[in-house]
Structure formats: C-alpha cells, structure tokens
Amino acid sequence: MLVLGAAWALIDGVQWPWLFTHSLAAATLIGLCARGSRTMVAHFLSWEPLRWLGSVSYGLYLWHWPVIVLLDATASGGRTAAAYAISILLAALSKRLVEDPVRFRAAWARGRSGAIAFAGLMIALALLWIVLPAPAPPTIDLTGLG
User: Fold this and answer.
1) Which has the higher per-residue pLDDT, 146 or 84?
2) What is the pLDDT of residue 73?
3) Distance between CA 23 and CA 28 in Å, rounded?
4) Of 33, 37, 68, 112, which sits most exposed with the smallest number of CB within 10 A?
5) How many other CB atoms are there within 10 angstroms of residue 73's CB atom?
6) Distance between CA atoms of 103 and 95, rounded to whole angstroms?
7) Over the stretch 106-131, which tens digit does the pLDDT of each residue have?
8) What is the pLDDT of residues 15-30, one digit of tens each?
9) d(CA 39, CA 45)
10) How far is CA 113 from CA 27, 38, 94, 110, 122, in A?
11) Hey, which bits of 26-91 come out as E strands?
C-alpha cells in the first residue's frame, strides 16, 4: 500500500508508462481488504479521514485536472501542495452543495429554484471559459515510448 501511495505521489505517467497498471494492484488490495476485514491494512483503510476522502473522491476526480492546469502545478512544490488543497476543498464543496442536495432531493434543487441554480452555474462556467486565458499545451516527447 505504501508503494502504491508513493508511486501515485511521485511518478508521472509520461516518464513511467507502467504507472497505469497500478490500478490492477489497487483493485487487488481492495479485494484482499474486503475478504480480510480484520487485517491491519483493512483497519488502516477504514480510518475516518481516509473514508471521508473516499466520500469526496468523485469530486476530486472532477476537480483535480482543471486546478492543476490553471495553477500550472508542475512548476513547483508549493503550487502542487496548493493544487491538492484547492482540489480537496472544491471536491468537499461540490459534494456538500451539489452532489448531496441533488442526491437527497433538497428543496432548492427542485422546480424553479433548481432551474435557476443550474442556469446560474452554467452562466458562471461560461464566463470563466471566456475570461480565463487558455493554458499553453504541454510538450510531450513520444519518442521514448516506442
């Protein structure tokens, strides 16, 4: 598990193309923990902060890439830490303000107020699309992959 965590944090998929196979190792780890729920690894993975991170994982999936691109998080360690923090914050906010209310049928998500909230969000996103400068495309050397 520590190796998977270190690989996720330290290695990128461009220089280490085998990194994408880590998903098979992660699935195996999850399967083993489900079968042996009293093991030390399963106990660690049931730790409340990790469970909370799992509850916002979909939001992290959605938010991490735009945050990394807008902050140019590859430039320095400080920006990378900021990208992590901002991505987690946005994921928590979107879970609390969007995912859970829609999932649990909050009053504001129904009828006219839901349509107004949706229209406001779409207008805000369109304005961000227009106002923010387009990031420079990354340069990827494909010669080392073959």
Assistant:
1) 84
2) 60
3) 9
4) 112
5) 20
6) 10
7) 777 778 888 888 899 999 999 988 99
8) 665 656 667 777 887 7
9) 10
10) 41, 47, 18, 6, 14
11) none
Q: Is 95 helix (H, G, I), strand (E, B) or coil?
A: helix
Percent of the chain that is helix, strand, coil (3-state, to 5): 75, 0, 25
pLDDT > 70? residue 75 = no
Give me the count of residues in the chain: 146
- What confidence tier does 105 reach under pLDDT thresholds 50, 70, 90? confident
Q: Find out whether 83 and 74 touch, Cβ atoms under 8 Å.
A: no
- Rounded Cα distance, 108 and 103, in Å: 12
Alpha-carbon distance 142 to 22, whole Å?
A: 21
SS3 of residue 133 by DSSP: coil
Tokens of 70: 């807008």
Specify whether the CB–CB gap between 90 and 67 falls below 8 A: yes
